[in-house]
Task: structure prediction
Amino acid sequence: MISIRHLSKTFNNPDGSVITVLKDVNCDIDKGEVISIIGPSGTGKSTLLRAINMLEPPTSGEIWVDGENIMEKGYPLDKMRRKMGMVFQSFNLFSHLTVLENVTFAPVRLRGLSEDEAKEVAMELLKKVGMSQKAGVYPDSLSGGQKQRVAIARALAMDPEVILFDEPTSALDPTMVGEVLSVIRQLAKDGLTMLIVTHEMRFAHDVSTRIFFMNEGVIYEDGTPAQIFEHPVRSATKAFVNRIQKLVFEIENDDFDYLQIHTGLGNFCIKYNIADKIEPAYVLIKEMLFNYMRPYRPLTLRFTHAELSGETAIDLMVEGLKESPLPKDESLENVRSKVKQIVEEPTVRGFRVKLII
Ligand code: ADP
Ligand code: MG
Result:
C-alpha cells in the first residue's frame, strides 16, 4: 500500500548550517499492518511521519501510495490527506468547536458529507472511543486522555487508509495512557493500517505486526516484534530495547527523606504501568532501610524496571562492604516471602543486595 524509496529530508538552519534528519529511508507497508516506530529521540521518527504525509515535504526520494508517487509534481495533496489521518502528541483539537463539531468538521468540508451524515458517522466513532457522552462539550473541559480519544475519532472520520500516530500518549498523565492505548489496540484488531511512533515498549510488542527501529535518520533494523525485542541483531537495537528505567536515591545518614522516596516510587510505578508493585516495594524498602540495612550508611538505593522483560528490582548497594549484610537465618523469611528472588553479590566497589519483586 505504501512504498518509500530513498527518502531524505534536510533542514536548512537560519544560521546557514544544514542538518540531514532522514538519510535514506526505505520500506514497504502492507494494508492492515500495524507498525510501531521506536528509537532514541532526535533520530527522525516525527520527521518521517511528517514527511510521509507531506506536512514536511521530503528533500528527495519517492513515496508510493496505492501505486502513485505522491511526491510527483502536481499530485493533489488533498487526495493524499484524505488517505492518511494523523494523530499528534498534543491532540490539536479546535478549542472553539465542540467534540462533535471537531469530528464532523473535515468530513463535511473535505469528504463532502452532509451535516447529518457527518453527525451520524461522528457519533458512531465517538461511541467507539468511549466519548459519545461528551459530544456536546468543548475540548477544554476534557482530560488529556479524553482529548486524545476525540482526536482519534476525528482522524477516523475521514475514513483514511492509514493513520499515523506521533507519540499519542507522551503528553498524557500516566493514569490516562491506558485508555488511549486500548482504543488503538481495538483499531489494530479491526485491521486498520497504522504507523505508530511510541515509547511504550510493551504496547509496541503486543500490538504490532512489525517494528521499525530508527537510529540516526535511517530504519536501522526492522522485523517482527519477536525479532526486534527478543532477538535484535544489531548492537544499538539491543541496547535500546533492553534499556532499564531507574530511580536512584543516595541514603547518606539516618535522616534521609523517606517521603521523597515514597512519592518518587509511586510516580515511577504509575509512569511505567507497574502500580501493582507499589505496595510490595514500599514494604520491602522500609524493611531494608529501617531494619536489615539500618547500620549501613551511606548506601545507594536503586529501583529498576526493565520495560520489556517486566523485571522490577530493588537494589541496595553499600560501598566498601565485603559480605552480605543480610542474616543467614530464618529471620529473613518475612522478606523472602514477598520477593521472587534475592540476589546477594559482591561488586567492584562493595556489595549489592537485589530484591527482584
Ligand atoms: P524524533 O521524533 O525521533 O525525536 P525528530 O524527527 O523530531 O526526532 O527530529 C530529528 C532531528 O531533526 C532533531 O535533531 C531535530 O532538532 C531536527 N528537526 C526537526 N524538525 C526540524 C525543523 N523544522 N528545522 C530544523 N531541524 C529540525
Ligand atoms: Mg518525535
